[in-house]
Amino acid sequence: MSGSVVLIVSILCFVAGYRFWGRKVAGWLGVNPDRPTPAHTRADGVDYVATRPLVLLGHHFSSIAGAAPIIGPIAAASYGWTAVLLWILVGGVFMGAVHDFSALIISVRHDGRGLGSVLEERVGRGMKALFLLFVFSALILVIGVFTNAVAMTFVSVPETATASLLFIVLAVGFGLSVYRLNVPFVPATVIGVALLAACMVFGYHFPLRWTFQGWRWVLVGYIFLASTLPVQYLLQPRDFLNSFILYAMLFVLVGGILVANPELKLQATPVWSTAAGPLFPLLFVTVACGALSGFHSLVASGTTSKQLSSEAHAQPIGFGGMLIESLLAVAALITAAVLSSGEYAANAKNPIALFSGSAAELCTAIGLPVRFGRLFMSLSVAAFAMTSLDTATRLGRYALQELFESPGSSPVRKALANRYPATGITVLVAALLVFSGSANEIWPVFGAANQLVAALAFLTIAIWLVFIRRPTLFALIPGAFIYLVTMAALAFNIHSFSHKGKGVLAVISAFLLTLALVLGVTGVRSILRARRTPAELET
Fold first, then answer.
1. What is the pLDDT of residue 409?
2. Which of 99, 118, 276, 497 could form a disulfide with 505 if both were Cys (CB 3.0 to 4.6 A apart)?
3. What is the reported pLDDT for 110?
4. What is the pTM of this model?
5. Which region, left, alpha or beta, applies to residue 266 given φ > 0 means left and ψ of -120 to 50 means alpha?
């Protein structure tokens, strides 16, 4: 089969999914454009800032994408590209998009608070504390891994370092010009995009070379700054401008695939077991972003919900943003599937390099030189990773603030709930992981942990829907599926790590498995209890 046929069919599936299933989900969630959002009712100029939908889509998409929708499908392609494609299509429409959209709405209905606070309200403070500690731990893993990934990209492709640093300066200037100097949004965007291209050209001609260790220290300092500054002066404008790079990369890659119309050479028939392990359950935790990812619920309920100007924008941002990422995952899968089995095996250990090289070759069909194409694709991946890095830091800060904040808190707890100490703790713990050298070693556990967050998000959504007497099966079915997948993946990890002598990883997996059991039992009890209580008025 040709890559263009796979791509066209995928696009049609995503459009139909958004048009029909997205509207059904919006109806079940009771989306109401006339209901005031926290961005207006709790506006503070720091975290709660009503934002244009196009800008917020750019922030949301850039934050959820990261490098995972590229790495995951390429790493999983050894299971056969048809199995990966099916999971992306079905998972993206009926699980991932529903998960992101619902998490965004439930947070908006609870004053922009995270899912931990929603659990506290419905189940109890103990569950909130357990959930937030788990989320904080997962985010520390994200920060640690992406810090190393970005630093390595800067070292291997120094042109991306120059451009990325210039992007940050440009983002601050864009934010100040729009929000402080009142420069009209459209002219500011046109100028910003032009300067964005200039930054890329400058980086191409003037690469900034430094050591891996040095870049890691710079990134640690950057994420502290990015998490404490008001969103409209760095995080939001940087993500918005970066989204143009990401959209351009996706547009160029899709165009290259359609014009080149490559034949997919990699094995199509599902491979039920590989050296990495069995297709079930590992496929579903290897391909997370692009199909279903718990990290997305943290973004949706952490930063996006605080900037949503109207519930009318929730479907294009929450549901639509996920489907754009799913399209990226399909395109990334095609860059692997066009290779022969031998070529794939020789390059699969470095998915980003495989993606950049293969994508650059495909884009020669539309006149893009191979060298520039490889640099452009590498820069796009670095932009994805940088965005996820600073968003994860801010989400870690939010998790600690929610954990410390409570009525009648002691002066110490109140002080720790301040954004500066909370950010400092987040960055310090992440830095310990970054410089310990163990971040990449722990990464295999994160796949299962990430999907456990997705299962917890679906659980929280289902509990809320039961309380307000709305349909729940659209959340319960995917939640139950990913919960069982996570349990099976954790059991496999425990067995595999034990046999390989990796005791620490086996213990961590066992802890997560125990946590999953506790949360599963508590969740079922909460749903049954909610069904016996009087219906609540929607809030």
1. 67
2. 497
3. 92
4. 0.88
5. beta
